[in-house]
Amino acid sequence: MDAKPPAAISGTGAPLTEAQTGLWYTQRIDPTNPILNTGQYLDISGPLDVDAFRKAVDATVDEAEALSLRFEDRPDGPVQVVDPSRRPLLEVIDVSGADDPAAEALAAIEADTNTPVDLARDRIAAFRLYRLSDERHFFYERIHHLAIDGFGMVLVTNRVAERYSCLMKGTEPAANFPPLQVALDDDRAYAGSEKRAADRAFWHEAMAGLEPVSGMAPGRAISGPSFHRESLYLPQRFMERLQAFASEAKVTWPDALTALVAAYCRRFAGTEEIVVGVPHMGRLGNVAARVPCMLMNVLPLRVAPDEAQATGDYLVGVSKQMMRARRHGRYRSEQLRRDLGLVGGSRRLYGPLINMQPFDLPPTMPGLDVRLNILGAGAVDDITFTFRGDALSALLMEVDSNPALYSAEATKAHSRRLAAFLEKAMDATTLADVPIACDADVERYLVEANRTEHDVPDTTLTALIEAKMAQTPDAPALVFGDTMLSYAELDRRTAALAGELVKRGAGRDRIVAVALPRSAELVIALIASLRAGAAYLPLDLDNPPQRLARIVAAAKPVCVLAEPGNEAFAGAQVLAPADWPQEPGEGALPQVEPGDMAYVIYTSGSTGDPKGVVIEHRAIVNRLEWMRTHYGFTADDRFLQKTPATFDVSVWEFFLPFLCGARLVVAPPGAHRDPAAIAALVRRHGITTLHFVPSMLSAFLASPASQGLSVARTFCSGEELTADHRDRFHQRIAGELHNLYGPTEAAVDVSYWPAGPDDTSSPVPIGFPVWNTRLYVLDARLRPLPPGVAGHLYLAGVQLARCYLGRPDLTEERFVADPFRPGERMYMTGDLARLREDGAVVYLGRCDYQVKIRGLRIELGEIEAAIAGSALVSDAAVIVREDRPGDKRIVAYVVPGEGYEAERLRRNMAARLADYMVPSAVVEMQAMPVNANGKLDRKALPAPSFEVQAVREPATSTEAALCQLVADVLGLEALPDPDADFFNLGGDSLLAVHLLLRVQERFGFDPGLGVLFEHPTIATLAASIDADRVHDSGLEPIIKLRGGDEGRPPLFIVHPAGGLSWGYRTLARSLGTGRAVYGLQSPSIDPEHPLPDSLDALAADYAERIAELYPQGPYHLAGWSVGGIIAHAMAVHLKARGKEVGVVAMLDSYPAECWRAEPEPDEAAALRALLAIAGYDPNAHPELTTRAAIIEFLREGDSPLGNLPGTALDGVVRVVLDTNRLVRTHYHGRYEGTVMHVRAGLDHEDRPDLKPELWLAHAAALDCVEVPFLHPQLTAPAASALIAPELDRRLAEHD
């Protein structure tokens, strides 16, 4: 037989009980946290006999041994010892002399409650009587939770009252409390009993299949040192109704309340099931029932109400569930958490706590009026709903919440809202009949939040554009490449085309289709369509002809503005740009009304056919006028138009500039996928406003080209903008960031949120409604929801679309009557959302099979319909998977049918679907998984494998490197076959951007998206890279910095002193599109290559190399610093050979005679040249003086230079030292042409003799430009943004 455990009273100590162990470790983990100080005070009015009361308290302390516990941490674990010296005898404190005795006492009570207890040193409990006056006292009790639970506190308090009453009456009290050892022995006996094993089995079965538990608010539920509390005494009528309600259902009122509060909590959790914690005394039938100590347990209660069920039946079900749980209630919840692996992190056994305390009433003492005030009952991890009282004389509802999860305002709202919910639930037939929002919620979040009425002129988009054309005729309106149109020219061109469209049938509520790539002609076509009185319909030329033909057939446009020869437009009237008139006719253009159609945009359709959304002028005018005014746009702004016209964001990009008299810069086709091209456009044109889909913003921020940009306003919409996106943006780009939200069916955007650098929201909200617009978050019965509850997002107001073109059935389904504004409509978005306390709306995802990937709206049903239409499968399902955070991919699951071939199915889908809708993977299944209801179990669909088994080894080092990069970008577990297609492996256009960023890091140059689309297999991409003569090292004598039109003369940029041209990459990207740019690098970086005899010999060698690469000329040359001197010498040699020389540009270069007296640089100076080559200002880093420090700095900055092999570094140092020798011994020949000189305007204070005019001794003419930078900064992004347009203009003069 086991030896009897050590008695706590013996001094040797007893182990902690199971009930105490979890609390012990909670306090040990955070010893300064006072949250486990349970406490209360009695507000006693009347003639209290203080001496008798002291005797009553001290006698109670003597018999309640747990109040004198001392805890010790010993090598074999913590123990507890009853230490009589630690008895918390009553302290009497007189505060009657204070100005406000009650406030004085309460301040002292609060200070003590908030003071952590040292379990080894301090008394575990304290009892204090504060004398406010002869007729009023506060009796304060504070006991650490390790020593007492809620019922134990009641036992102690009632025992004090009993003893006081007996002293006053002269009677004897009842028997003393049983000794603490009774509870310790019982705990030990239970620990090894069959009952515990049975209880354990019960709970394991009860919790089987438990999904991750969530609370009512997002975030980690970890108790802090304090909590919010909101208390409310429920009225007499409530208690009477509660008693009758419980009686009707034949359950106890505490069980009835628990069931209703659980239903309330589940509404907020937004899950089918919620697990609530229900405190359990664990004393009934227990020998330790009257022992004041810590015995209480928390039982997890799984509640999944069928809200259509009769409320009484629901109560009975929950009550029976609780009865079963109580029979097994001694098995500790802490142990159950360990059993289920729910310890640590954010894993939880239960969410909110629902605590019924029917025994928690003020004690009675003769001649005294006593009120009970509970201060704290232990840790508040999430939120606790406590009901104290017998529901006859009193019932107090307390809401305690964790401040990390709930604000004080939210806590107060839950108190108010829960009381209203309970009252309505007790009168409802079913829970489904009970709204969760109370009257105050409806007023605040439905009415006040949607007071967005604002006067907007009842006019048309056409009229606004025409008015601005007339006001600012000479101002630049439109820029595309080298083309610039003034407002007058735009007026003329669009009026001319509009007149022609009218002749061809365009007019009010007629449609003109526009199928043109991004260009000046595209903008002209859109405005002309509006001026002709028609609505424009943009078409995506990348769509399969079948899809385009279906759209054209459905829309019946009077004309298609497109290049000829597209089979999709067979049978339609096509008007090509070459046939557009250039001058307006004499006839007046039609008058357009605010209720007329402005544009039609087709989106994905669930039935397999795209659906056309019709937007009227009044709607889009409201949206654009709100944006113009809200963000303060002026004529000084420059907008970048890069969004495809078929995406409704393009609408404000196209037209808002023309409402402000601002300038619209149109990006070249394909540029919206190229971060470097976007950055170059921003810098070149001084863009102040641009838009990104968040996933593209992520790629843009990852690109080196975006570093240091300044953009006044960047807008995001189309998909969720994350807090990470926001924070990365502000770390990298100077300017405002704004989050917008809206479906195509509501004129682009209906809500806004300023995602500034001080915004800490996570998730980032979609915000507040724009002018004359309303956002409703409603439940399934179209009832308003309060903050924190997920619901369906509906939109109402002036911006709603007229209809779906030719689809009255679908229009009626999605545009429904507004129950809050008779006679008006609202649009069912299909989005899930919830309100914040400040009224901002948070987007939560979709509630149907529609998804958004990179801002493109996709109906999965359209993809499923395309697969079914192939007749190759017997069953199909399509989902979006996000197996890696942020990497959303469409995956199709098919059960193959007769004649099935994977490649045949893929070809069939590609012919019917837009490229962004074609699944990244097709998973073949024997049968689709179904759940118990026979429905498709989407959670059981397996993750696809994007792997392609490698059938051969990489043939070259470039192939091997690319295989690894592709595996990293796509998250492949194994290296792919070199012959695998990047897009068939699961790649898409956004992942292609990420791959090219990695290629640039690895190879030192970006081949461009066009190359990847042209060469999608790893092997062909590797061959393309090799063919461009840019290998792993990037050290060849000529490297391509950017591709371009082979028919246009390229620009050759000569290396500076370090011999490398990598630093020109930003300048090359900043130049206008269409021209190839090559960098000339020193062959002498290779230690095997001899050093040149002279700078003339080096220039002659370079001239020969470029003549071999581009025989016909003319030759455009440029160079920074020493590179400019070499470029001048090359021009002399080329002229001597009879070759035509175009631009010769020097970036702050000065003739050789300026440097003859300069000392020779040492190795440290040569190494520091690497900083300038990498784009850094060497003068900004004086601490970098050693080879190791410079290399480490470059590696930390992710510069490819930091990864140069040692021999290449030696070569750079060798070239720097030798180039300086070459310069000092060089004598210039004369160049009979013009030299362009770019001077670093902020530099050379110590060398005033360095002037561009020095070149007039060596050139026929000088063309000077000055930029506000230092010499080392001239290849940095900001300087490149100023230099590139000047260089472009001069290059264009030679084309």
TrEMBL record:
Its cofactor is pantetheine 4'-phosphate. SMART domains: PKS_PP, PKS_TE. The keyword Transferase applies. One of its GO terms (molecular function) is nucleotidyltransferase activity. One of its GO terms (cellular component) is cytosol. GO terms for biological process: amino acid activation for nonribosomal peptide biosynthetic process; enterobactin biosynthetic process. Its EC number is 2.7.7.-. Keywords: Nucleotidyltransferase, Phosphopantetheine, Phosphoprotein, Transferase. Residues 953-1029 form the Carrier domain. The keyword Mitochondrion does not apply. This is Enterobactin synthetase component F.
